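Dear Dr. H.,

I hope your travels went smoothly. While you were away I took the liberty of generating a structure for the chain from your last submission, since the lab meeting agenda had it listed for discussion. I wanted you to have the full record in hand beforehand rather than looking at slides cold. The sequence, exactly as received, is reproduced here:
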Amino acid sequence: MKNNYVWALAALLAFTACQPEPAPQKPSDTDKTPDEPAVVELTAPVLSADVTTVDLDAASDATAVLLSWTSAGEGASYKIEVGTATPSVIPVDALERAITHKEMASFGDAPFTVTFKIKASAQGKKDVWSNGVQVQVKAGETPPEPPAPTYPTRLFIYFWAWEDATHAQEMTRLSDGVFSWTGDCVPWQFKFLTANGKSEDYGTGYSRDPKAADYWTMMPTVGGDDPTFELNHDGKTAGNYTITADLTTMKVSYVEHEAPLPERLFIDTWAWGDGTKAKEMTALGNGKFTWEGVLPRFNIKFTTSNEKPEDYWTGYFRDPDADYYWTLRESSKEVMFAVQDQGYRDGWFTVNVDLNTLRAEIIPHIWLIGAGCDAGWDLSKAEEMTYLGDGQFTWSGTLYQGPFKFLVVNTDWYGYWRNSTDDNYWLAGENDTGDPQFDIAHDSLEAGSYTLTFNIFTKEVKITPATL
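The corresponding predicted structure, in token form, is as follows:
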């Protein structure tokens, strides 16, 4: 009985030792790390395109075809397989992709057919493919280039002050449609002409566009009364400018220069006629000039040229905004000087101009003549009085009992006579027709040495014995 038990136990142990080890169990989804997405079976995406033919515009970045497809499943990534003579792959990160004309042109030379497929992939899963979509690519017709704009080959700048269109000045052509001009100009009323052969050419060219937001915008001239440009729109005064007209943008621009002082200056007045009659002043250097001669009572200005009648408008008028009357302003509105504004009548004056300070100085002259002095009635011997300033003149010498009077020039007889209508015998007045004269005999004065004073403003005459 004991032997049977032993043999049974031995057989059991031998059987157990011969059994194979059990296979390890396959890990379940619960064994994955929490951030690892669950792998699912991929479904072949369905691809579609918004067009089936494309008229290729190889230089365009616009969309030629829009591809879109359904999802292959969670965690899937996609690539577009482009089937052409030279296959290519395009990675994508969404469920659609626009293919541009420029990209399409890189797939081949039109005309050709391109086949698109979507490849979907996911870790641990077999790749799946979408259906194929074909697109016919045609060689699109390149639209003809629009004709290049044509611009005039010549352009002229015209200021209203230059009389008519024949005086417009030709601009320099910098490039096609771009013109420039540099010169002295007034701050108002200018436009651009395409011709200056006739006065009616004023209606050609370009004027200001009053409807444009930018004041310095041009438009083609459609009539002689079109709006003009004015530099004083920007607060600019007369001066030296470079003005550019750009017909490609229809814009006007300008640059102001500090012009050098003129080397010549002329004094002018309406009484002398047009600009060619202006009298040249003597240049003293560094913008300073002087002149002596007869001036009328009114309408005086200074010009920088007297070659043409219209040069009357060049140079300097009076600055009406200045506190000092004899202040100049370059090529401004027509405001003239007048010696009568300062209490003078027409006569002989010394005129000094300093363009550095834009100031003029007017110095009057008075001569003594008559039987009551040594000059007698000989104009060539008339004795000039000394100007003290502020309208005061003085003279010292021998006076005789006999008539005398004052001249404003020493070449003619007009000047200051005795004011015979006033009770004050020693009061002068202007009298170009009568001939009332002064005489020391009126005060019972004997011939002798006297000092004679004359105030051109008050017309008061004083005679005092000369101080020995």
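Two observations you may find useful: Residues 47-138 form a domain with the Immunoglobulin-like fold (CATH 2.60.40). The longest strand covers residues 112-121.

With kind regards,
E. W.
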